[in-house]
Amino acid sequence: MWIGIDPGQKGGVAMVADGGELIAYMRTPIIQLAKRPTVDTAELSSWMTASRPVGLESVLRGIVIEKVHSMPKQGVSSSFSFGRHLGAVEGWAIGQGCKIVMPAPSVWKVRLGLGSSKTASLDRARQDFGDLSIWKVKANDGIAEAALLALHCRSY
C-alpha cells in the first residue's frame, strides 16, 4: 500500500492498495499553530491507523509527496506557509520509517497524461478509482492528486 500526499493547505491525502484500489482519503488536516495554519500530523497519524487494512495489504511500501516549490509571483508569506506544510508532511513521513518518493508534477502528471488542470485530475481519479461522489467536488482536487500520486508510484 502507498500513501500519496498533496501537501498544500487545500491538498489531500490518499491510501492506495498495491492492486490500485483506493482504500481511504481525506483533505490535508490543518490546525492553527501560533496563529499560523500547518499540517496536523497527529490527525494524519490517527487517520492512517484507523484506515489501514488488516493483513498483507496493510504493509506500507512508501509515502509519495508531491515535490513542490514556490511559484513565480507568489508572495513571500504564502511561499513560507507552503514550505511549512511541506516540512510538516516530510517530517511525518520520515517518522513512518518507510520509503519516501518525491516526484515533481512534471514527472508524474506527464506519466499519467495530465496537465495543470485540477478538473483533469478529478476526471482521471474518476477513471482510475471509480465514479465516487468525492470526485464531483472541485475542492477535492487535492485528494484526487494524492490518490494519483500513490497510483503513479506503486511501481517504484
Structure description:
The structure is a single chain. The chain has a 5-stranded mixed beta sheet. The protein has a two-stranded antiparallel sheet with strand order 4-5. A hairpin with a 2-residue loop joins strand 4 and strand 5. The chain has 156 residues and is of the alpha/beta class. It is globular, with a radius of gyration of 15 Å. It has one domain: 2-Layer Sandwich (Nucleotidyltransferase, domain 5), CATH 3.30.420.10. The chain has helices at 41-51, 76-95, 105-111, 118-129, 141-152, and strands spanning 2-6, 12-16, 22-27, 30-33, 36-39, 62-65, 99-101.
Helix-strand category: alpha/beta
Low-confidence stretches: none
Q: What is the CATH first-level class name?
A: Alpha Beta
Radius of gyration: 15 Å
Give the averaged pLDDT, no decimals.
87
- The CATH level-2 architecture is identified as 2-Layer Sandwich
Strand order of the largest sheet: 3-2-1-6-7
Number of H- or I-type helical stretches: 5
Can you count the beta strands?
Answer: 7
Overall helicity: 25-40%
List the secondary-structure elements in sequence, H or E: EEEEEHEHEHHH
- The CATH topology: Nucleotidyltransferase, domain 5
Biggest beta sheet attributes: 5 strands, mixed
> Can you say what the CATH homologous superfamily is?
Ribonuclease H-like superfamily/Ribonuclease H
Distance from N terminus to C terminus (CA atoms, Å) equals 12 Å
